[in-house]
Design a protein that fits this description.
16 strands, Rossmann fold, globular, single chain, alpha/beta
Length: 245
């Protein structure tokens, strides 16, 4: 069975995709909507559509702004940002390659230690990146630094409804470069190939932790939006705003 086979669908209805701005027939072939409830036109998944809704609300003029997206995919929201926003910059982290240089069509940047100048961007977007970092505190400080006053960081990552603690480490990086696993190894897909190790599980209080890592005003948007097919668990959008002076 595939997503193209109507007989395999557990959910099917018409709605409006805020990423490609089309009326489409949404269909999921299992009840894990986070990865299976896909837009047939742009292949966006619920977390991308959730972020698009927040982006359109918070910055309706986003097309005219400077945007940094870390680890974009070759589809969905990343494609729309790249197509519609002339000030869009896409980065991936290619270990061992020179930072700040172009590699395979992307600027090579370590989110935890970026080469961008202070105040380079109006918006920073990270879709399911933070759960793969060994130092998310450094990443948030760097994002705050590279945003202009009044800038916006929108991010998604899995947030466990069963975990109150802001974070529980699954792996850590040792000074010699080796990785120490503190829980069973877990990997997610990586847009540039291979698997990305999950280093940390985030919980309900992560918004408080982020505001301690960097002086952001932080809020969490949780939605059940049937029209935009933002359904299921772990579709939160974390909104980090750098206050204007």
């Amino acid at each position: 069975m595939t997503m193209d086979d109507p007989a395999s669908a557990v959910l099917e209805y018409y709605g409006f995709c805020p990423v490609c701005t089309q009326r489409v027939l949404f269909r999921a072939n299992n009840d894990k909507y986070r990865d299976s409830l896909i837009c047939p036109a742009c292949t966006s998944v619920p977390r991308e559509r959730a972020l698009a809704l927040v982006l359109n609300e918070k910055r309706p003029n986003w097309r005219s702004l400077t945007i940094h997206e870390c680890s974009p995919a070759e589809r969905g929201l990343s494609h729309r940002l790249r197509t519609d926003a002339p000030g869009y910059v896409a980065t991936h982290f290619f270990v061992g390659a020179p930072l700040g240089e172009m590699v395979r069509g992307f600027r090579n940047e370590n989110l935890e230690a970026q080469t961008f100048a202070d105040g380079s961007f109006d918006i920073v977007i990270t879709l399911d990146v933070m759960e793969h970092l060994f130092d998310p505190a450094a990443a948030h400080r760097e994002i705050w630094r590279t945003l202009r006053p009044g800038g916006l960081h929108l991010c998604t990552f899995p947030v466990s409804k069963h975990q109150a603690d802001a974070l529980k480490w699954r792996a850590k990086s040792n000074p010699d470069g080796t990785v120490e696993h503190l829980a069973a190894e877990q990997y997610h897909g990586n847009p540039i190939g291979g698997g990305a190790l999950v280093t940390v599980d985030y919980g309900y209080d992560i918004h408080k932790q982020i505001s301690e890592w960097a002086p952001f005003d932080v809020s969490v948007v949780r939605a059940n939006n049937r029209t935009a097919a933002v359904l299921g668990e772990m579709t939160e959008v974390v909104v980090c705003e750098r206050s204007a002076p």
